[in-house]
């Protein structure tokens, strides 16, 4: 059967399932219609249910955190749908509905009716007409308990909106029940209050009506709803209904403007909850009201309201409007609406007051988030009025506002109303709002003018010429009257209505000049499509807690703040220190920095109430010009000037770190942001002008390359490690525009230029910066124009074949760091042909390219050596080619023939074989080697590759076939020598030079792998998992090592992994004893190769286990780095994966990237993987069934959800499957997700094998 056939079969089965559950649901409703007690009171029924143990068709988060928290107050013995034992209940409370096949039903409701048994009881529920201070989507998104549902309706017969199946509310209204005088009075009072205070079902919509088209004497309203909602489907409305409703409104009101109001769900869940009219646009008399607005504000300007089944129809009826129903809502058919469709099952006339009493007071049950007791409708109205995010705007104009909110307005027509409305909604009412119209090209001012009519706190400023947003803000600052000033861009908004009140309270309590607010999220938007996603600003992680009345100097973490507009400023403080914007655009940094440098008291709030919109047309994201570069250059100069005036360039100054951080950040932004790229597109004079100006600014700072800071928020770590920023700074300081331009373009610098500076009296900092840069971007030496100089007759090339884990990396870093000084002493270690691990500067592979060229007989490296010698002259007596690859890779002795013309010699350092094996295994398994392995130590030791490397004798015999014995220099390295680093002294002695004046690398460059056994084992378990490429794997390992250190694991105490047992070590030493004796006799003239032969007394198995939180952090790092955009793998899933891999056949490590996760794989490798998978399947089938299920879910879905795991375990147990069939069953039943995943070779083979 093909994948297409499988898909068709699955779709057919899904359709059958939908039809089956729908029949069950409707069958239940029909039985309740027939058999439910006719005279029962739903309030009594619900009260009886409150005493029962019930299961609710919503997840635990819904009940305990978001919209449904009041349900646990109503039903105190309730079990959520995702909690254990949910299916065992006899009483189910069900929200949502099952819709006809083809529609999306509520999953909790579906699950209830799928598992419903004959003896089970069901109580249906839905939100009432007073639902929330916000909306149900806001409650889910913000998880704010204040936004929980306030009122639910319950019914044991049918949902109230099911027009063909009358439930308790319809039966009550059909009955002879009549209101008492007190009940009528209470209902009228509640209606009057709703109208006066404009309380709706959802209450997070502003009260500001947008401008409508002039020239119409009247308007009518057409109410849109969410497509395929239960209330429309069961309320007798479909697409034809909504089409006819709009056409009727147009036809019946030829003199009116037709206002179509979008449903709130369509606004808050764009792309997910579309309305019936979502695709339409304004045309003729029809105007689509897509901005959120309180319904009662709209009722003020219309005289007729057309609805299908929306509750807005009843709200309009309360407001005295003529309501026309094209569907069958619960309030239709009682005599106070015009009904265009027959209304079944409604036999009495009822007034608006009667309907209100029975639906709002009798039928709906209320709780408020601030109380555990059941609430009255009056208490709910109190709560809504007190806590809703928008309040009806009082006609107040304030002379002494507490806060002046400054909003530049230019090209923000789509956003300005939302922006200003979010300020109007602030609970701090004593404010002024200052929109500054900077010659906006659109209709933004019309929107502002409309808002001013209802809110005199808005004081617009209209500029007659465009000055840019920086200077526009200055105009507003001049006009501001508030005690404090807050800035907001016209396309951003305030999400928290209490934000300004809290910031002002903190400012007064702390006597702060500045108070910082956090960013809720960034709203990433496509210009045409509206919001597409929310993303977090990573810099907010630096501001988790609060600071109260601190100084900038003592808290450099404030440097991570990206914006000036998320601070509340004391206005007198800004005036006293003359803090103003100095550029038209790109104005943020100097303004903020001047404020921070002069503030005596700064506070930071934990509140995150701002939303920053990222859109294509904004200043930050439009195409850039030379004018933008000019503004940025002025900012750069201003920032340096501000720090310099404070003396921050002096070492030890309290602001020195801040200055260095900021300068590092500016160099990154100027040369690797848009300024440099834009300048490079200009003419030559412009390029030269800006390069000169940037150099002047760097020089004026007084800082050097040594002052740059490597922090991820300031610079790119790779460019920092590669010396790019350092060379830019030093080239600027020493007036070398050629070097600065090369570094900014990430271009290699000609070897002739590099060597010329190395062998000169140039500034040592410039030479050091150039050396570091050239290490990472070397240019192969070219034939000098003046011809080749004579070689030194004593020239030799030392091939440093240091056996791995003998300190070779430290020697290589020493050679790198001292290259200029060594050249002046006659020793040259080429900067080219070297492998360096990206992002891990301590990991260096040495001159591996020379060995590759030698094997291919590619003359490139040899010619480069000849040209380099010609450039450097006869002073060079020794060339050093150093690489661990000469020991780890086979056949490297061919390098002798390749370098025959340079008089080659071999220098080899040997370490005791058991220590080498222990360290090399740890490196391959946990150190971040491209030849990573996932096999166990004993399997790795048994491979042919490892056995060959343990045989030092055979290694030397191969080299002796190419070199005479006197040119082979053997150095055994004792354990104490490794620890003390004596190899470097020996190496320098072999070079025949003086060590004085040479610089040793820092300790972190020793590349000493200090991991515990548990850490190595943890990383080994990841080596068999897929990574996007080698870079991702190396990034993951580096992150893991950082987590080990940060978590205080044993490796943090400089602990070396003791992986091999004492017995394994003895076996190794015994196996190599004779070979080592031969080496000692031939090269050292003694009996023993190593003097220290004691075996570690502590067995390897005693290593401590890692803490659970450390393992969790490692798993999280893997998911972030290796599985972006894919389902996460949790710890249990990882363990299951490790179990399956543990018994698989392990191949020898293939070095130099051949085993890397990226790239193509040979047919032989695929065959090996196939055998491994077969063995893995055998291993899986030996596990307990529960673990087989976990492995199956991991393979099928890429993760193991604990809740789903429990469900599938029960599912498997009920099937009574044999062990051999469990895995196949799980994969067949739950394996659709894997077909859509990005499959590796192994995963595809797994699919084939299980087929």
Automatic annotation (TrEMBL):
This is Capsular polysaccharide export protein. It comes from the Bacteria. Residues 404-575 form the Glycosyltransferase 2-like domain. It comes from Bauldia litoralis. InterPro entries: Capsule_polysaccharide_synth, Glyco_trans_2-like, Nucleotide-diphossugar_trans, P-loop_NTPase. It holds the Pfam family Capsule_synth. GO terms for molecular function: hexosyltransferase activity. CDD domains: Glyco_tranf_GTA_type. GO terms for biological process: polysaccharide biosynthetic process; polysaccharide transport. The lineage of its organism: Bacteria, Pseudomonadati, Pseudomonadota, Alphaproteobacteria, Hyphomicrobiales.
């Amino acid at each position: 059967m093909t994948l297409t056939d499988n898909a068709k079969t699955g779709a057919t089965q899904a359709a059958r399932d939908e039809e089956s559950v729908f029949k069950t649901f409707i069958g239940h409703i029909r039985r309740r219609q027939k058999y439910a007690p006719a005279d029962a009171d739903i309030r009594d029924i619900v009260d009886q249910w409150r005493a029962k143990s019930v299961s609710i068709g919503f997840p635990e988060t819904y009940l305990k955190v978001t919209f449904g928290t009041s349900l646990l107050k109503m039903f105190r013995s309730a079990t959520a749908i995702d909690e254990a034992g949910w299916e065992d209940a006899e009483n189910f409370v069900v929200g949502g509905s099952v819709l006809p096949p083809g529609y999306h039903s509520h999953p909790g409701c579906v699950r209830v009716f799928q598992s419903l048994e004959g003896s089970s009881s069901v109580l249906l529920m839905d939100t009432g007409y007073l639902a929330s201070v916000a909306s149900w989507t806001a409650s889910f998104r913000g998880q704010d308990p204040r936004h929980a549902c306030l009122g639910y309706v319950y019914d044991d017969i049918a949902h109230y909106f099911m027009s063909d199946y009358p439930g308790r509310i319809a039966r009550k209204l059909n009955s002879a029940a009549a209101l008492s005088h007190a009940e009528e009075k209470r209902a009228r009072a509640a209606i009057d209050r709703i109208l006066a205070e404009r309380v709706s079902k959802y209450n997070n919509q502003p009260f500001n009506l947008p401008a409508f088209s002039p020239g119409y004497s009247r308007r009518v309203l057409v109410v849109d709803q969410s497509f395929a909602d239960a209330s429309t489907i069961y309320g007798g409305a479909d697409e034809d209904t909504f089409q006819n409703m709009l056409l009727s409104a147009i036809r019946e009101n030829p003199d009116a403007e037709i206002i179509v109001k979008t449903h709130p769900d369509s606004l808050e869940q764009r792309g997910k909850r579309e309305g019936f009219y979502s695709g339409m646009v304004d045309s003729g008399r029809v105007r689509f009201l897509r901005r959120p607005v309180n319904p009662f504000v709209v009722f003020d300007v219309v005289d007729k309201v057309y609805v299908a089944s929306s509750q807005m129809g009843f709200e309009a009826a309360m407001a005295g409007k003529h309501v026309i129903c094209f569907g069958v809502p619960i309030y239709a058919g009682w005599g106070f609406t015009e009904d265009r469709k027959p209304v079944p099952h409604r036999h009495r006339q009822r007034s608006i007051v009667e309907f209100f009493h029975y639906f709002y007071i009798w039928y709906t049950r209320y709780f408020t988030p601030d109380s555990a007791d059941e609430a009255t409708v009056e208490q709910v109205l109190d709560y809504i009025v007190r806590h809703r995010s928008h309040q009806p705007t009082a006609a107040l104009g304030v002379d002494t506002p507490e806060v002046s909110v400054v909003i530049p307005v230019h090209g923000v027509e789509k956003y300005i109303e939302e922006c200003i409305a979010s300020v109007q909604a602030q609970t701090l009412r004593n404010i002024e709002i200052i929109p500054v119209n900077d010659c906006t090209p659109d209709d933004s001012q019309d929107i502002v003018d409309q808002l001013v009519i209802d809110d005199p706190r808005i004081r617009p400023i209209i500029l007659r010429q465009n000055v840019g947003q920086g200077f526009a803000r200055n105009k507003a600052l001049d006009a501001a009257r508030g005690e404090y000033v807050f800035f907001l861009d016209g396309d951003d908004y305030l999400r928290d209505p209490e934000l300004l009140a809290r910031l002002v309270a903190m400012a007064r309590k702390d006597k702060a000049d500045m108070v910082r607010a956090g960013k809720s999220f960034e709203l990433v938007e496509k210009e045409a499509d509206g919001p597409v996603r929310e993303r977090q600003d990573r810099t907010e992680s630096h501001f988790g807690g609060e600071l109260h009345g601190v100084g900038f100097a003592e808290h450099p973490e404030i440097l991570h703040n990206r914006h000036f507009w998320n601070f509340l400023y004391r206005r007198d403080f800004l005036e006293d220190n003359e803090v103003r914007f100095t550029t038209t655009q790109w104005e943020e940094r100097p303004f903020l920095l001047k404020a921070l440098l002069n503030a005596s008291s700064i506070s930071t709030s934990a509140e995150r109430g701002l939303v920053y919109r990222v859109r294509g047309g904004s200043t930050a994201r439009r195409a850039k010009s030379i004018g933008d570069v000019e503004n940025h250059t002025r900012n750069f100069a201003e920032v340096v000037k501000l720090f310099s005036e404070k003396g921050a360039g002096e070492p030890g100054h309290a602001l020195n770190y801040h200055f260095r951080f900021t300068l590092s950040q500016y160099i990154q932004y100027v040369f690797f942001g848009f300024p440099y790229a834009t300048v490079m597109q200009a003419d030559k004079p412009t390029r030269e002008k800006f390069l000169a100006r940037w150099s002047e600014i760097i020089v004026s700072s007084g800082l050097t390359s040594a002052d740059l800071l490597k922090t991820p928020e300031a610079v790119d770590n790779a460019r920092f490690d590669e010396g790019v920023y350092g060379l830019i700074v030093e080239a600027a300081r020493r007036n070398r525009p050629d070097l600065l331009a090369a570094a900014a373009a990430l271009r290699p610098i000609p070897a002739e230029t590099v060597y010329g500076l190395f062998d000169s009296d140039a500034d040592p900092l410039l030479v050091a910066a150039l050396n570091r840069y050239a290490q990472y971007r070397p240019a192969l030496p070219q034939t000098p124009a003046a011809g080749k100089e004579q070689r030194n007759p004593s020239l030799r090339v030392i091939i440093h074949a240091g056996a791995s884990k003998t300190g070779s990396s430290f020697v290589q870093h020493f050679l790198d760091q001292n290259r200029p000084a060594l050249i002046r002493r006659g020793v040259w270690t080429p900067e080219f042909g070297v492998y360096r691990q990206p992002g891990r500067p301590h990991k260096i592979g040495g001159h591996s390219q020379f060995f590759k060229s030698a094997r291919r007989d590619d003359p490139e490296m040899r010619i480069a050596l000849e040209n380099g010698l010609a450039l450097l002259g006869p002073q060079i007596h020794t060339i050093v080619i150093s690489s661990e690859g000469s020991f780890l890779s086979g056949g490297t002795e061919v390098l002798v023939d390749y370098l025959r013309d340079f008089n080659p010699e071999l220098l080899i350092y040997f370490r005791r074989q058991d220590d080498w094996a222990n360290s090399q295994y740890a490196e391959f398994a946990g150190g971040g080697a491209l030849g990573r392995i996932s096999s166990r130590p004993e399997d790795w030791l048994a491979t042919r590759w490892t056995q060959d490397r343990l045989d030092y004798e055979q290694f030397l015999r191969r080299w002796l076939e190419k070199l005479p014995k006197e040119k082979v220099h053997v150095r055994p390295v004792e354990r104490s020598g490794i620890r003390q680093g004596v190899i470097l002294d020996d190496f320098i002695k072999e070079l025949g030079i003086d060590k004085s004046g040479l610089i040793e690398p820092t300790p972190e460059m020793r590349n000493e792998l200090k991991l515990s056994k548990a850490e190595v084992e943890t990383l080994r378990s990841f080596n068999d998992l897929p990574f996007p490429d080698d870079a991702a794997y190396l990034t993951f390992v580096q992150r893991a090592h950082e987590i080990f250190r940060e978590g205080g694991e044993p490796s943090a105490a400089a602990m070396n992994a003791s992986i091999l047992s004492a017995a394994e070590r003895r076996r190794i030493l015994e196996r190599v004893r004779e070979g080592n004796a031969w080496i000692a006799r031939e090269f050292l003239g003694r009996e023993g190769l190593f003097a220290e032969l004691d075996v570690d007394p502590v067995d390897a198995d005693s290593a401590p286990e890692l803490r659970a939180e450390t393992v969790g952090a490692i798993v999280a790092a893997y998911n972030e780095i290796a599985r972006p955009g894919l389902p996460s793998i949790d710890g249990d899933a990882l363990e299951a994966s490790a179990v399956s891999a543990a018994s698989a056949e392990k191949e020898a490590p293939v070095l130099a990237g051949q085993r890397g996760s990226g790239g193509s794989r040979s047919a032989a490798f695929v065959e090996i993987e196939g055998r491994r998978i077969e063995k893995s399947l055998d291993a899986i089938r030996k596990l307990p069934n529960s673990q087989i299920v976990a492995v199956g879910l991991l393979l099928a879905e890429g993760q193991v959800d604990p809740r789903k795991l429990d469900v599938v375990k029960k599912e498997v147990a009920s099937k009574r499957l044999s062990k051999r069939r469990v895995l196949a069953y799980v994969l067949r039943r739950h394996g659709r997700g894997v077909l859509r995943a990005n499959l590796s070779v192994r995963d595809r083979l797994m699919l084939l094998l299980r087929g």
